[in-house]
Design brief:
Number of strands: 19
Strand content: 15-25%
Distance between the termini: 120 Å
Radius of gyration: 29 Å
Largest sheet: 8 strands, mixed
Helix content: 25-40%
Structural class: alpha+beta
């Protein structure tokens, strides 16, 4: 009997151990699966000088029936900044499979959804709206940005996702836009000099200038750092990490990222907690993306407005089934934007390249002696000419430039041979070269722009 009881006890111990092992394995498998599925990262609000909480990775959950939106109570702090991931590292797909209509040659922008309280789709159609289309804004769209001026460096407090809040002395610039807005650009001094800092800033300012004035109205500063950390918006600021910016650019999503982040900066405080917006959420009963659904009190407007912008102003660039999805998913939010957001058509049209009469009119010179240099996209080409020929610089950029002899930051003789002064769009400047040699030149306004004129004596 003792032996039998002893065996029973051993069997029980073994069974208990096996069950514990099974439970342990199941728990581990469940935890492991969390990291195997594509996910979205939570955005974080944080107060200046207080580091943000780490952002957990979340999983997509597909529900068979849409969950009604609960009434939201949102407290906004003027001193907080919204940092939104918009991270493309998860390779998130743009939309779920469905029947695709042929894309029309022309799409009207006056699509008028009928507000409804009954959900027309069962779950969010997109994981994140950043990835719906890279064509909402494109690099060839006109920009309101036209000038970047170097200003005196002085200490600033900036947020760096690698380090938190930091106080340092960045490279400082003032950016100007055709609609009268100005932004202070603060570039981390880890960029070795002002020329490099300016080159990096110019890459992003052109894109930021493609945003409608409405989305730049509250942007007072731009922070630019190295690193592949995520962009952010809020606190009257746009946060840029250059390494991540290059990734977005490669993916063709840089413009869409700024569209999303600028909504955080310029629209969230005006709309996020208003009764009209909360009612639109309630009436739609669903969200445009999983990201908006996971964080309705912080991401819903920044996820929804870019889709509204695409529907109303860039419809010809978006596939028909995508436009229908937007209409069917958030009709009440669309109606809210129609009533709350001014018509952006005139604002966007004002960015088109202006026609301008040249104010710097050179003395006419024989055509066969003139070699033209078109100033475009912040570039000066290197050219070779013969002694006695004339170089004519013509500014085809929206931005003001100069063509100034010498090397920026070099000797005091810069501009002694020639200096065009400020060349706005359409202005030209000419200079005749009579002595053989190499002549470097640069733009006083954008010192990163450099070129060389090589003058050869073909008679030798």
């Amino acid at each position: 009997m003792v032996l039998i009881n002893y065996m029973k006890i051993n069997v029980r111990i073994i069974l208990i151990g096996v069950m514990a092992s099974i439970l342990s394995i199941n728990t581990f498998a469940c935890d492991s699966s969390l990291n195997e599925k594509p996910g979205l990262e939570e955005s974080v609000n944080f107060v200046q000088h207080k580091p943000p909480t780490p952002m957990p990775t979340l999983n997509k959950v597909v529900e068979s029936v849409a969950t009604p939106v609960e009434q939201l109570s949102i407290e906004l702090q003027q001193s907080s900044i919204e940092i939104c991931p918009c991270d493309i590292k998860f390779a998130i797909t743009s939309s779920k499979p469905m029947d695709v209509d042929d894309k029309p040659e022309e799409m009207h922008t006056d699509l008028s959804p009928t507000p409804t309280t009954k959900p027309l789709v069962e779950s969010p159609p997109f994981y994140g709206t950043l990835f719906v289309s890279s064509e909402i804004l494109v690099s060839t769209d006109p920009t309101a940005f036209y000038e970047l001026e170097k200003i005196k460096d002085s200490p600033r407090t900036m947020y760096d996702r690698r380090k938190g809040w930091i106080t340092l002395t960045p490279h400082l610039f003032k950016a100007r836009f055709l609609d009268g807005l100005t932004i202070e650009v603060q570039v981390n001094p880890e960029f070795k000099n002002a020329v490099t800092a300016e080159e990096v800033a110019l890459k992003y300012l052109k894109v930021i200038g493609q945003l409608p004035t409405l989305l730049r109205k509250d942007v007072e500063t731009i922070w630019i750092h190295e690193g592949d950390e995520l962009f952010g918006g809020g606190n009257n600021n746009l946060l840029i990490h250059h390494g991540q910016g290059l990734i977005y650019e490669t993916q063709g999503l840089l413009e869409e990222v700024f569209l999303h982040e600028a909504v955080h900066t310029s629209l969230d405080n005006d709309h996020l907690s208003t009764p009209g917006w909360l009612k639109a959420q309630q009436d739609d009963g669903q969200f445009i993306s999983d990201y908006a659904k996971e964080f309705p009190s912080s991401e819903d407007i920044s996820e929804s407005f870019p889709m509204y912008f695409a529907l109303r102003y860039k419809a010809s660039r978006i596939e028909t089934h995508i436009l229908k999805l937007i209409e069917n998913t958030i009709p009440n939010r669309i109606e809210y934007f129609d009533k709350s957001i001014p018509d952006l058509t005139e604002m966007l049209d004002s960015f088109e390249t202006p026609t301008s009469e040249s104010t710097n009119t050179p003395t006419p010179i024989a055509k066969e002696l003139v070699v033209g240099i078109n100033i475009k996209n912040y570039e000066f080409p290197d050219i070779s000419i013969d002694v006695g020929e004339v170089v004519q610089w013509k500014n085809l950029d929206l931005y003001t430039h100069s063509a100034t002899s010498g090397i920026w930051g070099g000797e005091d003789d810069t501009g002694d041979l020639w200096d065009s002064g400020k060349l706005t769009f359409g202005n030209v400047f000419e200079f005749k070269f009579t002595v053989e040699g190499e002549y470097p030149y640069f733009c006083r306004i954008h010192p990163g722009m450099k070129g060389v004129v090589r003058v050869l004596d073909s008679s030798k």
